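Trying the structure run again after the queue cleared.
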Amino acid sequence: MSFFDSLRHHAAARPAAAATCAAHRVISYRRLWSRIQRASARLAGEWNAAPGDIVVYRGGADQDALMLYLAAARCGARLLPVGEAPPSPHVAAMLCRHPPQVVLYADGLVPHDAWGVPVVAPLSALVATPTPCRPALIEDETRPSLITLRREADGTLRQEECSLSALQVASAAAAASFHVNGALFDARVLAQVLPVLAAGGVVDFR
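Done. Tokens:
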């Protein structure tokens, strides 16, 4: 099965099983899949995030950030996580050259972004209310879905992209659980997280 087929299977066969957990919240596979569906519909149907578009996320590693990444990947969009601090001048300049379609920020943060972005919203707005949109999505897991930035010795930024399928190929054998300790959007961390979810395990954010 594809990664998204695996999530659908777990949501139907083991709906109450925990998919992710944090200090005060456990999200079951049924709820995780429901949130991914709603987030996908809002991104693609209401906010017009098309395949190849950039979705920027400002915030830390948590359950909703993982849900956002999976929804963006399902829409064919590319998630660019920039951390909790306002983007550096180098990142801001890059986003001026290549404006994102959507900027989402963790609840409690104040947006400092002025790139002429069509949608700037708190992360909670992604699933806060139902949406009537039912966009047709092609779940192509070979599309680039994550953008990471690496600073070179001369100060320039190198942009790297990877897909869901590439991250899963790079992973070790799936474990029953995995603890995320701060760096969710490091490709090496996602390469552990994705196989755990595909196998029906638990991703722990505590």
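The first strand starts at residue 18 and ends at 21. Worth checking whether this holds up in the mutant runs.
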